[in-house]
Design brief:
Elements lengths: L1 E8 L12 E8 L7 E9 L4 H8 L10 E8 L9 E4 L6 E4 L4 E3 L19 H13 L7 E4 L7 H10 L3 E6 L2 H10 L3 E4 L6 H8 L4 E6 L3 H7 L3 E9 L18 H6 L3 E4 L9 H13 L7 E5 L4 H9 L6 E5 L1
Parallel strand pairs: 8-9, 8-11, 9-10, 11-12, 12-13, 14-15
Antiparallel strand pairs: 1-2, 3-4, 3-6, 3-15, 4-5, 5-7
């Protein structure tokens, strides 16, 4: 018998999440039966998608959704040896019991000098999202100019670095001067604090007077309305997120983008990285190679302790993190 803890959604969020929206519960897990595996969380991920998806995927009382890097601590399944690490989407749990079907082993050649936490970061879902958004949705080409917002976050920071690998000019924006400095360290050609500029439009025009070929959108809302007139003809827009709208109580409206899309013949596409799941192994190895070569630099915002899951989640939503936000057990 294993004593586990879980965080549940006590009540659906209204506006920005509050501490009282979550509830910590105990859970008892039996020892694994034949074919089963008991895993223990090592690093848990907190991500923006959890906020909107909670409305669609969850009912009150459900365990909070999310991925984690876990360690196999008991196993009666020959495919998972004790001490090995896996990725599981079991949510905000300290321990979980599995038949193995929902566990993904880390890459077999994972280097010892890279933290396994990167498997929920740059060498995991955020990295895959950046890669597919650029290659499959934007079809980005050498010499083009890319704009990415929320550029110091888990996805945006990798987007910019991959675009530089591909020989592109990269403009990024973020919400603090410290984040802007980080973007410059990563090699972004232009970076600015969108909260302190007098005019977002003028800042974007100054950063790229000739406009933008590709726009990787993590923010949505008013920001994207300003970008549309600045897109070049036949520009491509990858819609990854809309974090500026996730906590709205009143739905935002207009301005509307159809005229810009028609006259400039733009292509805008929303996407989920699971569309290319069949390519994950190959893509993860590319991300791992770039990381080992120093072409992708990874920064993590680590919160210690499972009891701090809600505060880590809320901090991420309000932009406390630079790079990937994770919770370390």
């Amino acid at each position: 018998m294993t004593q586990a803890k879980v965080w549940t959604l006590k009540q659906h969020f209204t506006g920005f999440p509050k501490t009282g929206d979550f509830q910590l519960k105990d859970e008892r897990l039996l020892s694994p039966k034949d074919g089963e595996v008991l895993v223990e969380a090592v690093y848990l991920s907190v991500d923006p998608y959890m906020r909107p998806y909670s409305k669609v995927w969850m009912k009150e009382g459900d365990v909070m959704i999310g991925a984690q890097v876990a360690k196999v601590i008991q196993s009666k399944n020959p495919n998972f040896i004790v001490g090995s690490h896996v990725i599981t989407h079991c949510g905000w749990r300290t321990h979980s019991l599995s038949d193995g079907s929902d566990l993904t082993p880390l890459l077999s050649d994972w280097p010892q000098d890279q933290s396994v936490s990167l498997a929920v970061g740059a060498i995991g879902m955020p990295g895959l999202t950046a890669l597919y958004g650029l290659e499959e949705v934007c079809s980005i080409k050498e010499g083009e100019t890319l704009l990415v917002n929320a550029a110091a976050g888990a996805v945006g920071s990798v987007v910019g670095q991959i675009a530089k690998i591909k020989g592109c000019r990269v403009v990024g924006c973020a919400g603090t001067d410290e984040k802007v400095s980080y973007l410059k360290e990563l090699g972004f050609d232009e970076a600015f604090n969108y909260k302190t500029v007098s005019s977002l439009q003028k800042a974007l025009e100054k950063a790229s007077p000739d406009g933008y070929d590709c726009y990787f959108d993590n923010v949505g809302g008013d920001f994207s309305s300003v970008v549309m007139p600045l897109m070049r003809p036949f520009g491509r827009i990858a819609v990854c997120g809309s974090i500026s709208m996730y906590n709205d109580i009143t739905t935002q409206t207009g301005p509307y983008i159809q005229s810009h899309m028609i006259f400039k013949q733009l292509r805008m596409e929303g996407f989920l990285c699971t569309r290319w799941e069949h390519r994950h192994p190959e893509s993860l190895r590319r991300l791992l190679t770039w990381t080992r070569e120093g072409k992708i630099k990874c920064r993590e915002h680590i919160t210690e302790g499972f009891l701090n899951m809600p505060s880590a989640f809320m901090g991420m939503l309000q932009g406390d993190n630079i790079g990937k936000a994770i919770v370390k057990m």
